[in-house]
Every structure is written in C-alpha cells, then in structure tokens.
Amino acid sequence: MQTAQALLMLMAMATWAKHKEILREAFAIQSILATLVRDDGLHSSPYPADISWEAWTQQESRTRTKFIVFCFFNLHCIVYNIPPLILNSELKMRLPSSAAEFKASSAAEWHEARKRTSSSSSSSPSPTTTPDFQAALRRLFSRGGDGRAITECNSSLGNYILIHALIQHIFFARQTARCHFPTTTAAPTGDLSPDDINSLEHALRAWQHGWRRAPESSLDPLSPTGPVAFNSTALLRLAYIRLNIDTGPGRALDTRDPYAVARALRDWSPPALIARNYNSDSPKRLPGTY
C-alpha cells in the first residue's frame, strides 16, 4: 500500500494547491488511487485473538489507508460536487481500532491500550473486534435504538468515516431527487421525500448521540487522540445543512478565485428550507455548540 499512500499524499497536496491546473492533477490521481485500493481489496476479517503487534500494525495501516482514501474522495465530492470514486456499498471492511492502539510504539503499549479500549467500551464484543462498516452504517438507520451504540464504542476515525458515509448517502439521494420527474410537466424540485429526510435525520441523530459518549470524542483540536473527532462535528453540521437544503453544484470553488466564488454564491438562489416541526427528541444543539 506504499504506492497508494504516496499517491494519497500527492492528491491531498494537489487538492488544495493554488492553481487550477494542479487541481486537475489531483482529479487525475483519483482514478489511479481508486484502482490501487480496489485491487488490494475493500474487505477485511476480524483480527485473530493471537495476532502479533507487528502483524496487527500492518493490517491496521492498510485498513486506515483505504478508509482515508474513501474519506478524501468524499471531500472532493463535498467541495467540487463530483461523484466519489469509492461508494459506501463497496466497503466490506471493519472500522479502524482506537487511536491509542494505533499510536502504540511497542507491543507492551499496544497490549495495554487494547485492554483499556476493551474495558472502556462495554458495547464492543471483544478487544480484537471492531464494528463492521456495513453493519455500523445499517444500525445508524435502524429504528431499534441501537444505532448510537455503534458510535459510542467506535474510534474517532471510525466515527469520522461514518459521518462521511452519511454525507455520501445524502449526496446521492439529492442526485436522485433532481432526476425524479413528476407526472406533470413541472420540472423536478430536487427536494428529498419526507421518508428520506426522516430516515437520514434519525441516522444523524443516532451518530450524534453516540459521538457524545465515545471515549475518543473531544472538541479540542489538540486532543491527544487527534483532531479527527473535532473535524467530525463540522461534517455533522454540513450533513444537516445538505439534508435540508440543496446547495447545488455551482459554487465555483475550483476557480480558487474569491471573487468568482462570491459571485457564484450571490447568483445562486437557494430553495426554501424544508419546513420541519422538530419534536422534543430532535437535537437542539450539535456537538460543537456546547
């Protein structure tokens, strides 16, 4: 996966480069990177109970690299309104383990971190098992009330991945809504159906409640577990915005020209926000507003 990791770094640098020509290089790297990741496989199995620290580190690094590529493709989708090259439905991997386990510098530190992770998360089946991505995403949409247990026992990177998955779900729901032609001659409104909105709101609320209780969650960007949990709250806000309003494709962010971006935002006529009567169970504040 070293080639994929190198391309990921190049793509990240090119994505935020000042010149549009370099941005095109980032988009060109996307397809190569997606092919490399797919060739290595988008599936994984639980770690054996007797796995060594060295073997665990190699497997965990591969898993994290693939998920970070998935997240970065989603960032391209968010910023530039292009479809992500790795879809939620393709990922058959287990979510990453805790930051403490991954940052351990010796086998002894790793074993100790695994013990702490196991004792602090009663919802986790075992210290060698992390939630499966597909099962975790499905449980967020479940009405059984166990969705929050996924994010509550999950690592900060795991929750970051799940909020990206929810934003991707919203993106494709919006794309479908724009092409849903009514039986009349009227143009499609692009609005999501009430059922879609309710389902996604439930998933976001489950993610949010679990995030608050997760051991690695923090609003401090300098937290020892890293800024990932903090960044996740920004994505949660974005998810709620995109769920309730169609932000449209024309934001001109790829121009790198602040005046062009300002003109695009000025000329864009946002549709009316979907009227919602939130009940007492709806989130009044997002994690970052305390």
From TrEMBL:
It is found in: Nucleus. Residues 3-208 form the Xylanolytic transcriptional activator regulatory domain. Residues 1-17 form the signal peptide. One of its GO terms (molecular function) is RNA polymerase II cis-regulatory region sequence-specific DNA binding. Its main location: nucleus. GO terms for cellular component: chromatin; nucleus. GO terms for biological process: DNA-templated transcription. Keywords: Metal-binding, Nucleus, Repeat, Signal, Zinc, Zinc-finger. This is Putative c2h2 transcription factor. It comes from Diplodia seriata.
